[in-house]
Design goal:
single chain; 314 residues; mainly beta; seven-stranded parallel β-sheet; 21 strands
């Protein structure tokens, strides 16, 4: 079912009688949206007389969308406001949409009507700054009652009186305030809370064999510095900065076997004075500590017997 651009379905009265009842059942959706001239799209069961009361609106639909001023309206000028009963899985309120059972719109008596929205397996969604309202207000009478059941309610919230934001109200300007009951088990902030212990838990690491240079065991903690007071807590941004600390593991339960080191001592060679000299194959003189007789060097030149060449001159 769709009502758009000023289309409406109404059961109103301007005499002594009461307004009628509008009941809508849809298999897929109900969409009410838009305005045309002075007409607002919606379902209306208003009473404009001083004695008559407004009727009721009953809607059953998997999805209900009220947009661009679309309304479910069970108001009265001076009598009691009617009731609105809404059964849905998704209620979407946009751009000034309203669900109202306000009484005393002519600044007269009358109690506000009741609004019952059952979306226990679904959600109610609005936009905070779009001024979409759910109201059961009164002028001098008693404010109505708003009872909402849903898995989640987003963008709209209860306030003492109407504002320019998206509101849920059951107020009375000069009378007694009404009541608002929001049952949202799906978003209960306390449902998942667990009280943590306040006593710090000691962290222990089992001692292992100390084997330098091989198979070292390590317990490494990284972060901005330090451990939190409780192991289940998280590190806060203002945690103090702590520098790295050198740590040498100690073994208090096992005795380490003694390690025997054999020092290596080098004995310097004794200096011996040279007692001889020889020539190597390169013709270099080599000093030697060996006292053996050196091999004499034989000249390659042949001695010439000068005696045979002697001549006498006069």
């Amino acid at each position: 079912m769709s009502l758009r651009d000023g289309a409406k379905l109404s059961a109103e009265t301007s005499g002594q009688g009461n307004a009628g009842i509008i009941e809508v059942n849809t298999a897929d959706f109900l969409n009410i949206s838009g305005k045309s001239s002075n007409f607002i799209s919606g379902l209306f069961v208003n009473s404009q007389s001083s004695t008559g009361t407004s009727g009721d609106i009953i809607v059953t639909s998997p999805k209900v969308t009220l947009d661009n001023g679309g309304s479910l309206d069970a108001e009265s000028a001076s009598g009691n406001g009617g009731d609105i009963n809404l059964q849905t899985d998704l209620l979407l309120l946009r751009h000034g949409a309203s669900i109202s059972t306000t009484a005393g719109t002519a600044e007269a008596g009358g109690n506000g009507g009741n609004i019952n929205i059952n979306a226990s397996s679904g959600f109610i969604i609005a936009v905070r700054n779009e001024n979409s309202d759910i109201t059961a207000n009164a002028y001098t009478g008693i404010g109505g009652r708003v009872d909402i059941k849903a898995n989640g309610i987003y963008g709209i919230q209860f306030r003492e009186s109407q504002t320019l934001l998206s509101d849920i109200t059951a107020s009375s300007r000069f009378g007694t305030q009404g009541t608002v009951e929001l049952n949202t088990p799906g978003i209960d902030p306390n449902s998942g809370l667990i009280e943590l212990p306040t006593v710090p838990v000691d962290t222990q690491v089992a001692q292992g064999c100390y084997s330098p240079g091989y198979a070292q065991n390590r317990f490494v903690i990284t972060g901005r510095g330090g451990l939190p007071p409780n192991p289940k807590d998280i590190l806060t941004p203002d945690a103090p900065q702590i520098d790295w600390v050198s740590f040498k593991p100690r073994n208090n339960n096992r005795s380490l076997p003694p390690v025997t080191n054999k020092p290596t001592i080098s004995t310097p060679k004794r200096i011996v004075e040279a007692t001889g000299a020889t020539l190597n194959t390169k013709g270099q003189i080599v000093l030697s500590a060996n006292s053996s007789i050196a091999t004499p060097h034989l000249s390659r030149h042949t001695l010439t017997d000068c005696r045979n060449n002697l001549r006498f001159f006069k």
